[in-house]
Design a protein that fits this description.
The protein is mainly alpha-helical. The protein has a domain at 1-59: Arc Repressor Mutant, subunit A (Orthogonal Bundle), CATH 1.10.10. It has 6 helices and 2 strands, in the order αααββααα. Strands 1-2 form a two-stranded antiparallel sheet. Helix 4 (63-71) crosses helix 5 (87-109).
């Protein structure tokens, strides 16, 4: 979300800035950003004013793409190539597969831009509430 919010400025964000805003340990964030960089979702810029930027427009990056990159395909609870040993296992597997498809559909529907906009509108509502 931080990179999506910063996208229009063209200025990179440093790890310490993102970590402070999101309350994420620097080391963990480095690992996440490295995975996102390898997947072509973010790019790094070296130098004194270096940091990380989105590699594409935030409205073109879905949450499914980001989550798949970070979590990996092995996070799925069923193994598609393995034969079910019982009727019960087959039923549970079918339900997990349906749940996975539903989850993917929701995550595919939202982009980083959507998240940034939702956060912005919620922050404005919170501000108005306290006035």
């Amino acid at each position: 979300m931080e990179l999506a919010t910063q996208y229009s400025s063209g200025e990179p964000l440093q790890i310490r800035q993102i970590a402070a805003e999101q309350n994420i340990p620097d080391r963990y964030l480095e690992q996440l950003l490295a995975a996102l960089r390898r997947a072509g979702i973010v790019r790094s810029q070296r130098g004194a004013r270096g940091g990380y930027l989105l590699a594409r427009e935030p409205w073109k990056i879905t949450l499914l793409e980001v989550l798949s990159c970070i979590e990996g395909a092995e996070s799925r609870p069923t193994e598609p190539g393995r034969e079910a040993k019982s009727v019960e296992e087959m039923i549970v597997r079918e339900i997990w597969q349906e749940a996975g498809r539903a989850t993917d559909a929701v995550l595919q529907k939202y982009t980083l831009q959507d998240l940034a906009e939702k956060r912005s509108s919620r922050r404005q509502l919170d501000f108005m509430y306290y006035i």
